């Protein structure tokens, strides 16, 4: 069972593109997906900035927000456990995700299955190419988008 909840993705066109890619995958593979198609950008940014003003990592906030929602939904729906595909990416902070997942599981009384899926990263790229699926060029939040383009700009100016 998959779960879509990504209010962190910016801009909205990127959010829709990723959502449509998952819907296409669901159609092609017959996957079961629960969608929480919500886009409270203002709330996300307000909370993110507050979090960062306290000197905390933006990634930590994003992981916590999404994993807690996943844990809550999994518990309410009677699942035995929950995990995340975030650990497929070699760019994500897998250990931090694991710690946050464990805390979310404790908070909602449902086990978090911490798995490092990075061993399947190259295979996931091949599968997405075979299925002609969109692959995202950055994490998703406006801050990661800024980092991506800013780094490219700085490189090109040197």
Structure notes:
This protein is mainly α. It has one domain. It has 6 helices and 2 strands; from the N terminus they run βαβααααα. The protein has a two-stranded parallel sheet. The protein is globular, with a radius of gyration of 16 Å.
Instruction: Indicate the proportion of strand residues.
Output: under 5%
Helix content: 55-70%
Low-confidence stretches: none
**N- to C-terminal distance:** 47 Å
Morphology: globular
How would you sum up this structure in a few lines?
The protein has 6 helices and 2 strands, in the order E-H-E-H-H-H-H-H.
Main features:
single chain, about 160 residues, mainly alpha, two-stranded parallel sheet, 6 helices, 2 strands, globular
Topology, please?
Blueprint: E1 2-4, H1 12-29, E2 33-35, H2 41-53, H3 58-76, H4 94-108, H5 121-130, H6 142-157
Parallel strand pairs: 1-2
Helix pairs in contact: 3-4
